[in-house]
Write a structure and sequence with these properties.
The protein has about 325 residues and is α/β, with parallel strands linked by helices. The chain contains twelve helices and seven strands. It is about 35% helix and about 15% strand.
């Protein structure tokens, strides 16, 4: 799963309806959804015009995404740095804002990294697949149940982007069997295929290495003068607020402590470190020594209860 875009571009490019696609996703969906047809070429779709954006932005909605925090993150980033590392990729907002010349982007969520790989190496294939997907509840559940791990990177990317744009609150959540279990969202006309954004993100990712690996192993690759941004699953603010199941293993207290220890070790050897997390008391205690802690305000909408959504305090740590 690792390697530069240039090394994988030729290998990753596929036409829209290859035999692999016809025998896997498309046929699987058609068998279980005889009443809903794929949107044919030339029909109305949710794709936007193919203008390429000069500045890319995240193509996925991600719980805890950092577009709101970008001003604070950019304020506290190092002005000069060598290589860029982001071990919890998520939506990649800071990476897309910085456009570093050398970047290693990682996550333990293999489907997420395969999605970025598909967008990097075969963005036109991803776009062409997404243009064929209707905004339809029955289609959503049939596509959700496909054995996605057996498909190509471009097919995984179209699967995840579609479910992300049409699923409830844009969540990515799996059960213990690693099965995606977010229900259909209630949107009137979601933008499933933002062509310009996908193409801009593909260009930005061209020089990035994409890796499925634990944050600690990625962090230890960094040397003096490099920059590592950690955006882990947030520590819960209360006993009922936890949302860490973006992989089947979760991210708990022991992992938060291991992350703190790694960040401190990196700082001590001259690596630029920036972290974001919730304002939970446990996080404040973890980073009370050896770090600068800054409070920022953000609006979060992932709480299942409407009364629990809105402006909250988060932490930017360096």
């Amino acid at each position: 799963m690792e390697g530069s875009g240039a090394a994988r571009r030729g290998e990753g490019h596929r036409a829209v309806c290859t035999s692999a696609w016809e025998s896997s996703t498309l046929e699987a969906v058609r068998r279980v959804n005889a009443t809903a047809q794929i949107v044919p070429d030339g029909a109305a779709t949710t794709a936007l015009p193919g203008r390429v954006r000069e500045t890319p932005r995240p193509f996925l909605k991600w719980a805890g995404g950092k577009r709101q925090l970008l001003p604070a993150l950019l304020e506290h980033r190092p002005r000069k740095f060598g290589r860029y590392f982001e071990p919890f990729l998520g939506g990649g907002a800071l990476f897309f804002a910085l456009r570093p010349a050398s970047a290693t982007l990682a996550d333990v969520n293999r489907r997420l990294i395969r999605t970025y790989t598909g967008v990097r190496d075969d963005v036109e294939g991803v776009i062409n697949l997404l243009k064929r997907y209707p905004h339809d509840e029955k289609f959503f559940y049939r596509l959700r149940d496909v054995d996605v791990d057996a498909l190509s990177d471009a097919e995984v990317a179209s699967w995840l982007v579609y479910l992300n744009k049409t699923g409830y609150n844009g969540l990515y959540r799996v059960n213990r069997e690693n099965r995606f279990n977010v229900p259909f969202g209630r949107y009137d006309n979601p933008t499933v295929c933002d062509v310009a954004t996908l193409r801009a993100c593909s260009a930005a990712l061209a020089s990035a290495d994409l890796v499925v690996e634990d944050f600690e192993r990625i962090g230890r690759r960094a040397g003096r003068g490099d920059f590592v941004y950690f955006d882990p699953p947030y520590a819960p603010l209360s006993a009922t607020a936890s949302f860490t199941s973006y992989t089947s293993k979760g991210f708990g207290v022991d992992e938060q402590r291991r992350l703190r220890d790694l960040a401190l070790a990196l700082k001590n050897r001259g690596v630029h470190v920036l972290l974001s997390n919730s304002s939970a008391a446990s996080v404040r205690d973890l980073y009370s020594r050896g770090f600068e802690v800054h409070e920022v305000s953000a609006t979060r909408m992932v709480n299942s209860k409407a009364g629990g959504r809105g402006a909250i305090t988060e932490l930017v740590i360096r």
